[in-house]
Write a structure and sequence with these properties.
mainly alpha
Length: about 140
């Protein structure tokens, strides 16, 4: 019986809740709608903020990738330039060596002809050929 007395007033005390809910259902619905709208707006703002952060991160990563790609391309260009320089230097050295060798041959031939001409002059003038110096024979 004591249990019944305690439970009856509780039931009576909560009996006003449905009436209150019905009486104030329009403002409650408006409040619930406003709360849902605020939640949706907050969710949308959060998604936009997250999208902006992701886009900014992509730009930064992309910028870093561009920098790395540019540095790698610069290294390739320098490497190619050094290889070309080495090839050109080798070609220039080979050309200079061949040109000097040809010049040396021409000078030897010129010296031989010069010495032959000097001998011919000495013989024509009746000079002793032993006195004519022929250094490059």
């Amino acid at each position: 019986m004591l249990v019944r007395r305690l439970t009856r007033p509780v039931r009576r005390r909560t009996s006003w809740l449905p009436r209150l809910k019905n009486k104030h259902s329009v403002p409650v619905k408006k409040a619930e709608e406003e709360a849902a709208r605020v939640r949706a707006q907050a969710q949308s703002d959060a998604e936009n903020t997250l999208a902006d952060a992701n886009a900014q991160a992509e730009r930064l990563i992309s910028g870093e990738n561009i920098k790395q790609m540019a540095e790698e391309r610069a290294r390739e260009i320098v490497s190619q330039a050094r290889a070309q320089e080495k090839q050109m230097r080798t070609g220039a050295d080979d050309y200079a060596s061949a040109s000097l060798s040809e010049l040396s041959s021409l000078l030897q031939e010129l010296q031989r002809r010069t010495d032959a001409g000097r001998r011919a002059i000495a013989e024509r003038n009746g000079r002793d050929l032993t006195n004519v110096t022929l250094e490059h024979e």
